[in-house]
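This is your field. Have a critical look at the following sequence-structure pair:

***
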Amino acid sequence: MPGRLAVVGGGWAGIATAVRAMRSGHSVTVFETARVLGGRARTDTGAPEGLDNGQHILIGAYSQTLALLTAVGVDHARVFHRMPLSLRFPDGRGLQLRAGTPLVAFARAVFGTGGWNWTDRAALLGGAARWARQSFQCPPDWTVEQLCRGLTPAVKRDLIEPLCVAALNTPANAASGQVFLTVLRDAVFGGRGSSDLLLPRVPLGELLPTPAAAWLARHGADMRLGHRVKRLAAATDGWFIDGEHFDNVVLSCSLAEAARLVEPSHPAWAAEAQALRYEPIITVYLRASEVRLPSPVVALVEGPDDPAQFVIDHGAIGAMPGRLAFVVSGAAKWVEVGNEKTAHAVVRQAHRLDPSLGKQPLRIEGVRAERRATFRCVPGLNRPVQSIRRGLVAAGDYVQGPYPATLEGAVRSGESAIELLDIA
């Protein structure tokens, strides 16, 4: 039943929770430690020229995220550069889908992939057909590497490994085969446009946090930014947040904060949450006076001295001309190396990427390291349940669900949190 609701945390899960709750008739108060909304997908307001805390890419299958953007008045055509899925390397090899129905587009892409022979193509088409016959299910203890044992080295190198680290932020030899299959099912084979890449043309703050904050304020939400919740306590008819009474509470804060608040009353839930392990992501932003890559997104060969797996050309998508965002997923090694050395390694990688980049100075515009960017998506992972106790629900990309830690997973958890409260 609608009532007074506290949303603790203003990341994308918290935003989705608050918007859905307002539309369902709840009176909403949002508590956010930072001075702005956005969580791990935000714009660094103290940085020059609107640097984000990391490069984010959405896909066409993010149906609930796109619906949330529409709900708060965001025009998709203005904020996104939309393009078919591309995992092409600088030498031209790699998969690139074209517009069309999923199966036809995938088959055409496989036959058109440079650098593959007929054995490579037949192995991938056969593997995809086998996964489809098995309803995209595999033994729960399988890794992506085990799932793809029948594929050739070229297919693993040029498609499976870069797609796995991009989607799950976990290397193929450790990543969950089942979660990978779920991503393939819903993204690559989910429907027309489901695999499209949606590259933000605007800073992340303008993408959702700022318009959502304005929408929530217009609709009467109580926005308490810069407020870290100190204590959560049960009441006979609801919950107390720092001594203030609410009928229901949604914990959409970070996993560590949720565990801290819940541990005194529900130590088992807190222990399960604290048992999750994380994978970092580093984004290195470079600027060059004149640059245009062969594609807005270029896959890169990762190596001992080459950190990044992808680079996004912001000028090519109608964003900041001359800015390149190099993405280092599964970046534990490079976090230990440090931001400065990682950035210089990326500069050297960039000079090898394209001859034109080797002829001009590259300025390091910024380095953003998210040490807890995503949970480590391994087989058989026990993720915390959403419903903790009557009137107390968790929302975040880490709660139980079919997807890895993504913006869509966060948004879906916010939507389902209100559904759980409404039926409790």
